[in-house]
Amino acid sequence: MNSYKIDGNNRIVYSKDMKLIELIDTDYELLSILLRLDIQLPFGDVSVEEMCRRYDMSPTLFLMICQVYANADFEPDVESLDVADLQHIIRYLRASHRYYMESMLPSIAAGVERVLEGCDAKQNAILRKFYNDYAEEVKAHLNYEETVIFPYVEQLAAGGKREVAMADFMADHTDICDKVDDIKSIIIKYLPESCTTQVRCGLLFDLFRMRDDLSKHTLVELKLLTPVAIAAERRLQR
Predict the structure, then answer these.
(1) For the residues 3-27, what does the mean pLDDT come to?
(2) 136 & 38 share domain
(3) Predicted model pTM
(4) Which residues, 6 or more positions from 85, have their beta carbon under 8 angstroms from its beta carbon?
(5) Rounded (5°) CA angle 215-219-222
């Protein structure tokens, strides 16, 4: 029987007092957050607050990230965050980058190779090009964050930046979720029967998980990182 609380709108109430096992029980996809933050199992009956204390994290911020992942229309109370939280947000986003580069993209690449075994030369070339273009776009997107946005925010958090640039950075930041649709169409509609449904579905599951996770990643940047960084810019401009 579930022991977590439900509010008047039939939504789960996330709190620092809830057990970590209860948090995962609300949405098993939240396990990916623990994985990328290197939170080790088993964790017994510890609360969210106790876990955050062990791993030097803000429980308020951790729960906001979880809610962004669990609820697409969640609007965080960014007023409860301050410039000190910027380092923790960047830490999480960098952990997500490692998760994409070291786990998700290699898994997708292996799935592509399995699919290509059932393709002729022309189909092989088309699918490989679409996937390679997608992978390069993801890598370029993450590299822009690592080399431009994150260093700027880190200096901002340290009080060393006074220009107003965060809104411009995010305006120039491209969306990389749509390209999955092109690959999806090729896999579902055009590959030969020799490429089995089981192999195709394995790759599609990975592609959709990557697309959805990148979408949540973008929401963390837009709903948490950007408003806190802009508030820090305004304070420094006074």
Answers:
(1) 81
(2) no
(3) 0.87
(4) 58, 61, 228
(5) 135
